[in-house]
Write a structure and sequence with these properties.
By secondary structure, the protein is mainly α. The chain has six helices and no strands. The protein has one domain. It has helices spanning about 1-35, 40-45, 65-80, 85-105, 110-135, 135-155.
Length: about 160
């Protein structure tokens, strides 16, 4: 039961932090429209949503330092992980979830970099939740490999 509460808390942090960003982005859009006289079609084309992460003119996006601290800690823990037992995987999964909570509660990014980070972060959170839900060492090992793959993607698109 405690584990389910932690998962729920993680989602609340993510969506709570992002809800504030969404409200601010809504204000920014209203400001942009009045100052740039954009048509609805121009605005929609400019802000099309896609799940595919884009580079920043061919370069990785810069993640704010306070957020990068949590991401680097998680990446380092995944890289250094050598556990094999179900309990080892569970300890790592809980630590990753705690870092996700810290990351999302310290969300300071805005703009396109923020949007692109969310394209990585939301699936990553789902992956960590699946990892934490694994009920045996074989499933945990499989999910752990998914977590590792998520960091390979992160390191391609962000710095």
């Amino acid at each position: 039961m405690k584990f389910k509460n932690l998962i729920l808390l993680s989602f609340l942090f993510v969506f709570g932090a992002c809800a504030n960003d969404a409200k601010q982005e809504g204000k920014d859009v209203a400001h942009d429209r009045s100052s740039h006289q954009q048509t609805d079609e121009e605005h929609e084309a400019e802000h099309e949503h896609s799940d595919v992460i884009e580079l920043n003119q061919g370069q990785p996006w810069k993640v704010d330092d306070n957020m990068m601290t949590y991401i680097k800690k998680m990446n380092d823990e995944v890289d250094a992980f050598s556990g094999k037992s179900y309990n080892d995987y569970q300890v790592l999964a809980m630590d990753l979830m705690e870092n996700i909570d810290g990351l999302t509660s310290n969300c300071t990014m805005t703009g396109k970099a923020h949007d692109e980070l969310h394209k990585w972060l939301l699936p990553y959170i789902d992956t960590v939740n699946d990892f934490a839900k694994a009920d045996n060492d074989i499933d945990a090992a499989k999910q752990f490999n998914e977590v590792k793959a998520a960091f390979k993607t992160f390191n391609q698109f962000f710095k």
